[in-house]
Amino acid sequence: xxxxxxxxxxxxxxxxxxxxxxxxxxxxxxxxxxxxxxxxxxxxxxxxxxxxxxxxxxxxxxxxxxxxxxxxxxxxxxxxxxxxxxxxxxxxxxxxxxxxxxxxxxxxxxxxxxxxxxxxxxxxxxxxxxxxxxxxxxxxxxxxxxxxxxxxxxxxxxxxxxxxxxxxxxxxxxxxxxxxxxxxxxxxxxxxxxxxxxxxxxxxxxxxxxxxxxxxxxxxxxxxxxxxxxxxxxxxxxxxxxxxxxxxxxxxxxxxxxxxxxxxxxxxxxxxxxxxxxxxxxxxxxxxxxxxxxxxxxxxxxxxxxxxxxxxxxxxxxxxxxxxxxxxxxxxxxxxxxxxxxxxxxxxxxxxxxxxxxxxxxxxxxxxxxxxxxxxxxxxxxxxxxxxxxxxxxxxxxxxxxxxxxxxxxxxxxxxxxxxxxxxxxxxxxxxxxxxxxxxxxxxxxxxx
Length: 449
Ligand SMILES: Cc1ncc(COP(=O)(O)O)c(C=O)c1O
Prior knowledge:
Layout: H1 13-16, H2 20-24, H3 27-30, H4 34-42, H5 44-52, E1 62-64, E2 67-70, E3 73-77, H6 90-103, H7 117-130, E4 134-138, H8 141-153, E5 157-161, H9 166-177, E6 181-185, H10 190-199, E7 205-210, H11 222-231, E8 235-239, H12 264-268, E9 276-281, E10 291-295, H13 297-306, H14 308-312, H15 318-355, E11 368-372, H16 379-388, E12 391-392, E13 394-396, E14 407-411, H17 418-433, H18 440-448
Pyridoxal-5'-phosphate is lined by residues 1, 140-142, 165, 167, 210, 214, 239, 241-242, 281, 283, 291.
């Protein structure tokens, strides 16, 4: 998940990898020597945590609602992306056996050979929910980025958000290896994108960026980016892995700031799909292994013959197709209620951080709350303290994020209990009192200087 903290000046791990000649040709390399040492040195901070920290690479032995057991310790889970709680929804779980009886566990044709009719049903319902012209589903977003970005970019120029998700970066690297050029624009800066596009002579232009950012929890100004893209006749490709299922259209009478129906960022901003390709997935809010691309039918048909996962990859298991279809039903009937609960929990945590003068980049009330530490070297101790207090979060270590952003990420879900959120809040108060967290007002002053 991490490595979203990449900027132009950040560590580029690929450039630190030893070259094939310098290492692989030595006997030490063959016996697992120098090349691996180089990687371990580069990744020292995170490898130290992975090897010894109870909150990393953990074996979760049991769950009870959003409580999880690691060894003897029960912890409230604030690291899951199951925002709507569909993973534990009795109605969704009950839907699975019927589908398994009808379809078996796994359709092992590649999609180009043939797909169970469940795929047609999912794509029809998804297209209706999103309000797009059409949609195509594939197993994961990672599959989509690595196969679709190279098709859309061809040998043109990609304008890449400097803090786009690592999987978007990797998709762009594949495109580069096939002849595309890459220019990076500054995070959340449509003006910079405008300048780069104005200076570009290549007429084939693809812009790649995140929707809801997976670390800050904030949405980009999609309207501004769409306007720049259309003015320069570029195609805008947006990864809204976290937004789908949480944010959605905003009719006049809305009660929840997330909007309703959870139909993702394009609808949330009241935008059309003209010149926008939306990519997202079901593996977060819908707790199912499946992802999608919302695009015109003409593009969908091209991808059916040009995107390798459609031609060659094994498809999602039937249980995941079943939980997506049952998830649509639950979303229709109870989704807005669940989103209100999710918002209530998120607002509680954010209100406490504000009261404590603790900095978080989250200004959107989305259920991702990143909390950087005042001193990045304290991550081990802070993580252990949270673990001991029964709070499970995602540690964000260097070099996956820049040193100034080392800390932890809290994610709320609709089915966390108030008692679990109380435990989290008590631990945050304690950390703030000990001076472990960054001060919001000091940060603002710094920005103003
Ligand atoms: C923004 C973003 N894009 C893509 C992915 C990868 O999604 P998938 O597991 O469907 O490949 C993630 C997963 O964390 C993500 O946060």
